[in-house]
# Entry
Amino acid sequence: MNIKRLLCCGVLLLSFSVAMADKPASNAPVKRDATTFTEADVQEITSIPVLQRMVAGYKGLGDLQRLSWTLARLSQLNPDSADLRMALALSYAELGDKSKTYDLLLKMKDQGYGADLSDDPRFEKVYGTEAWSYVVQALQMNLNPFGEGSVAFELPKGDTLFESIAWDPKRKKFLVGSVREGKIYLADMNGKLTEFISPADGSGLWSVYAMAVDADSDLLYVASTSSLYFKGFRQEDFNKTGIFKFKLSTGKLLEKYLLPSTQGTRAFSSITVGKGGQVFAADGLNNQIFTIEGDKLKLVVANPKLTSLRGMAVSDDGNMLYFADYGLGLFGADLKTGTGFAVEHDTATLVLGGIEGLYWYDGNLIAIENGMSPQRVIRLSLSADGRGVTKMMPLDVANPAFELPTYGTMVGKDLYYIANSQKGLYGQYGDVTDESKLKPVKIFKSDMRFAWGENGISAGGMKPARQATPEEGREMMRTRPTMLDEATAPPREKKGE
# Structure
């Protein structure tokens, strides 16, 4: 969820009504005038889309009081959203409510948030107290770099837009994929590139967004999309996306698995390989996850409540698939029972929104969290059943090399990843806006076993969410291709409300 988009998506002139679909109705939802809502009225609403429309309406009307109530309710329903927390703090500041502003910002500090608010004019109404000085100092301290990782090597700068990296353990070489060229290069530890696979070879590759290696089977899987960023884009390839399977040792194309191009805009943006070579690829636009079954793609996870699927990871035993939703946090799917779950954690100490890359390592999850301030790489220790986080250990935080770190690859106990994604330098039609601003691509290395025996930050204590039974899960899979209805459902209303 992007609160900036919410606040700009519409302005209503005098008043607006909201269809109250949360409560049962005999024929149609009852429409109520949202300009008369009390705080209790807002608290009753569990529909996130309704609350989003209310944010836009109150913002347009300048109704700061109801805006703050609505943002507070949204934040309750989306506790892993950094954008919502900061937007709520700003609304309190605009109201001049020092107590609520300070309290929320200090809670955000405890969650690991960092920010420099010392000269931020948006908080001017709450300036000038010793408490404010303490809050500012506390948030600034969280911006201090932490960790022992470093830049391992650099790739040459240029109009390539490298967004993905993988590792070939037999050749001891990295593979890097170009969104602009649709090419895959081999890279050594000094960053020297050698062209490996090209669209001109007959593969038909488009923009390369993600790669996964199955070294035991000598296979390379590539998530590729015909995007506007691709220099070889053709109109007849619009909306085409798929998984390309290559022989890892030679780069020979073995198979293509394409999604239908007649079903709207699609884009495979992340991919992973689990036990036995099972492949999972996520369409981040439609928030669906597919696997390869035979010669076809099979939909295994889909839910309209998801907002933006990013990284995925599979447990070593192949039983659990974990995936990050950029706005909503971390989820999992039990592949044995066909049921989904939200990964439980204490939101007072840990925020799991804004995760881009996700990796399974020795019973832990490693997450690249570029939607957090400060940007960071963290290790998440899981509960015995794999459905909750018990503690978090920051590996590298606020390193000066971090400029939107994205995806990575594991090499032994180290995670290598792109530290400075430069997609922000490209316009809506895929062309670089100022080529002089392009920089060498920094490949960062973090030790996944850093502080392995230390306690880290406690992230347990949450009550487990109700999970679907195996019978419910099997029925759910028979009737519709989704695993997450229970995990992403809003809180149920109490009887009588």
